[in-house]
Specification:
Strand order of the largest sheet: 1-2-3
Largest sheet: 3 strands, parallel
Helix content: 40-55%
Number of helices: 4
Shape: globular
Length: about 100
C-alpha cells in the first residue's frame, strides 16, 4: 500500500484498522462502516461480495485482483485511477475486477 500512499491515495490496511482477524463477511461490514472500498485478492471474499449483490445486502464495494493475472504495479496504477475517478459511496454494491 506504500505505492498508493506515495501517490497521495488515502488507504488503510485491515491490519492498521484492527480488522485483520475478522471473517470475510465482517470485514465487508467493517469496510462499509468506515466508508471504504475493499481491495482483495481473496476468491472467497469475492464470492461473498457476489452473494451480497444477488441478495441485495449492502457493502461498500470491492476491487478484486486475481493473484496470477495482475501484478502489484498494475494494481497500484488501477487503484490510484479508481480512487481519483470515484466519489465516496459511488462504488457501493459494485465489484470491479483488475486489471481495468
Amino acid at each position: 500500500m506504500d505505492g498508493l500512499r506515495l501517490r497521495g491515495v488515502d488507504v488503510v490496511t485491515a491490519a492498521e484498522d484492527g480488522a485483520a482477524q475478522l471473517e470475510d463477511p465482517n470485514l465487508l461490514d467493517r469496510a462499509r462502516e468506515s466508508g471504504r472500498v475493499l481491495f482483495t485478492m481473496d476468491d472467497d471474499l469475492l464470492g461473498i461480495a457476489a452473494e451480497r449483490q444477488r441478495s441485495g445486502e449492502p457493502f461498500a464495494g470491492v476491487v478484486y485482483g486475481h493473484q496470477l493475472r495482475v501484478s502489484i504495479g498494475q494494481c497500484v496504477q488501477d487503484l490510484e485511477l479508481i480512487a481519483g475517478a470515484t466519489e465516496p459511496g459511488e462504488l457501493e454494491g459494485i465489484v470491479l475486477f483488475l486489471p481495468l
